[in-house]
Amino acid sequence: MDYVLVHGTTQSPRGWDRLTAALARRGHRAVAVDLLEGGSDLDADGYAEIAARQVAAAAAGSEAPVVGSSGAGPVVVVHSGAGALASAVAARLGASRVVWLAAFVPDTVRRRSLLSEIQGSAAEMFSSEWSGLAAPPTGDPVTAGYFLFHDGDLATLRWGLDTVRLFQPARVYAQEPRPLPDGVASTYLLPVRDRTLRPQWMRVAAELRLRIKALEVDAGHCPHVSAPEEVAGIIG
User: Which stretch is the leader sequence (predicted)?
Assistant: First the structure.
């Protein structure tokens, strides 16, 4: 199986390195795309095209196909705010499945953009501490560690902090959401010690918006950093 890993708003593609290695040990290939290559002012389709180009480049540089070798489309893994891009990326890559990793699930029922939902329901979505931040946590290692890597050991904390980077695609967050393409399955991994998105919000979003039951892991907002083997075992 092949995987396309889509970073969220607080990490660079390096944040996927531990999960990529864990998947490789299980015989899978993964491509971690870098959406910031296209800047921070594209719409969802624009970022999907960036992802497709990078996946194609990875395939061209490999002795074997990087995506689609099993005859099925790749598994797209979206973290955190990258959930707003899940539909566009899945459609562009012909994905077979989307894995939502502590990810925002768009409200395709009421057709609210992420920005609109935050404006109307922030207290339901986010922890009060996260909502109270005056600036993104990427600018302060103490804040980033508290929200993103509090569930790991010291080595994990140090490694995680080296992957922190801000990515805020404003046009995407203001777009009306689209549902996943027909036939694309979903898996939702819910970290129960998340300090950003509220676990209860994620649980309900998975049930009402994806029609699935979330799979819970004992981790914080970045389980691909603190628990890569567990995550790989679930999605692989």
Answer: none
Residue 45 belongs to domain spanning: 2-235
Picking from 103, 117, 87, the residue whose alpha carbon sits closest to that of residue 11 is: 103
> Of 224, 221, 220, which Cα lies nearest the Cα of 234?
224
Q: How many domains does the chain have?
A: 1
Structure tokens at 41: 């002012």
| Confidence at 69, pLDDT banded by 50, 70, 90 | very low
Residue 136's CATH number: 3.40.50.1820
* Predicted confidence (pLDDT) per residue in 173-195, tens digit: 999 999 999 999 999 999 999 99
Contact 97, 56 (CB under 8 A): no
Dump pLDDT digits (tens) for 14-33: 999 999 999 999 999 999 99
Dist. CA 205–CA 105, nearest whole Å: 6
Looking up tokens 């799979």, which residue turns up? Answer: 215
Task: Give me 96's structure tokens.
Answer: 């077979």
